[in-house]
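TA notes, week 10

Several of you asked for a full example with nothing omitted. So below is the full record: structure tokens for the whole chain, then the designed sequence directly under it. When grading your own attempts, check the secondary structure regions first.
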């Protein structure tokens, strides 16, 4: 069995936050290659287009040589097979994340028993941080500058102006 070199980090990233970036940075130190994969989900209404989210992620990770940005639609197991990746990365902030994440991980394993999910605990200082809250605080005029990278803060400001 070949050792895993690539890890796939899937998500909505609407928008990417410092919590996501912390996870990406830590994964990049452990794996030879990290693929951040933005889900194209027609049923979710998003603030940013998939292309905008990919651009924001690319800008924020430009100094990490072994990180690349991609998008996918449909089943994660199919995408992982296509990328020849067998390891999925997900972040856990609290027990509430764990229940949902465990369900997803077990379903993915059911669909493809060769696919493993790795849970990484969020950094303490970002463990309350979600894209949804960032959007909400920004919409109401709160300061989000310490919660997202500067390029994302700029785009959020453009959206609300
Ligand atoms: P999804 O819609 O797939 O949950 P998100 O973009 O909200 O996508 O999150 C992608 C992954 O990153 C999920 O595993 C989520 O638990 C994790 N995550 C979200 N926010 C944080 C954070 N602040 N710290 C660590 N992991 C996070």
């Amino acid at each position: 069995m070949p050792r895993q070199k690539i890890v796939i980090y899937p998500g909505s990233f609407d928008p990417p936050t410092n919590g996501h970036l912390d996870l990406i940075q830590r994964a990049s130190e452990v794996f030879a290659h990290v693929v951040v994969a933005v889900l194209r989900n027609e049923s979710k209404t998003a603030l940013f287009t998939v292309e905008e989210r990919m651009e924001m992620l690319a800008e924020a990770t430009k100094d990490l040589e072994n990180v690349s940005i991609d998008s996918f639609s449909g089943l994660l197991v199919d995408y992982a097979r296509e990328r020849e990746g067998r390891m999925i990365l997900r972040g856990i902030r609290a027990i509430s994340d764990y229940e949902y994440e465990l369900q997803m991980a077990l379903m993915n394993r059911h669909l493809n028993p060769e696919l493993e999910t790795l849970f990484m605990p969020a950094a303490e200082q970002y463990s309350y941080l979600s894209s949804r809250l960032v959007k909400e605080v920004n919409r109401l005029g709160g300061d989000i500058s310490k919660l997202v990278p500067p390029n994302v803060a700029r785009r959020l400001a453009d959206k609300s102006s």
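The chain is about 45% helix and 20% strand. Use that as a sanity check on your answer.
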